[in-house]
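Here is one chain, start to finish.
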Amino acid sequence: MTNNDVLLFFQKKLEEKKLNQNLSHLFLFLLTKVTNYSDIFLILNKKINFSEHKAKKLIKSYCEKNIPYQYFFCKCFFLDKTFYIKKKVFVPRPETEQLVVIVKKFLTYYPFFKAYPLIDLCSGTGVIGVSLANFFEEIFFVEKSFVARKCIKKNIKHLKNKKIKIFCNAFKFKKKITFLVSNPPYLKKNEDICNFSKNEPKNAFFYKSHENDFIIDFLEYATKNNLLNKKYFLIFEINFHNLEMFLKKLKNIDLKFYLIKDLENKTRFLIITSLNILPTILNQISF
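Its structure:
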């Protein structure tokens, strides 16, 4: 079976299942897994023979069971890095890459925050904390999933000179908060998710409470327990579908906030801060 044979088989399965046809990156992933060749080598050598059974098994599993391809290879990509991931752990999204880019821009204007611990809240695989590790000496990961915490431990192994702690409960976290970045569960129970996402952990998408929001509950917890430092910066990825109701609840907490849109012009990011961020700086860190 050659590269072209597998591609045709793969496209046929995608058509049958009415799935996205533009998945050449996945095709290369499958080939590298089956052949043990690099993707560049495979691009340059289009007629390599390999196991038909193994190729078809991987493709059928992906197309028929709607399993994220990252789970097959125990790896996911985030910005310029590769991360270890397992089933039952949330697969990082491009929107969270945008979140990290915003934070990196922000730190160029307010570098004094680098002297404080970075808190990666609802860490998942730990992509946020690891991607920002060059800016901080101390990093706190907060993640309740045992499987996800195992992924974090693998993904931080190369961070030899950093002070790192992993916590398992956001609502028992007692450290002072100066700089926090988070992509928390923010969807409502009645909101739909795509087929591939249905094989990811539901609590990474949906908060346990039908009425409340994770972000609102966490901010109330942090203010009630006096966890916010004198100067602080918190940034969250938020649900733009439910923005009006969310902002109404947020205003009751009486914290200064700013909203930032993503590359698709959707209100995707929320900044909670003690700072008065100038409009020019806000514009510079936005997309």
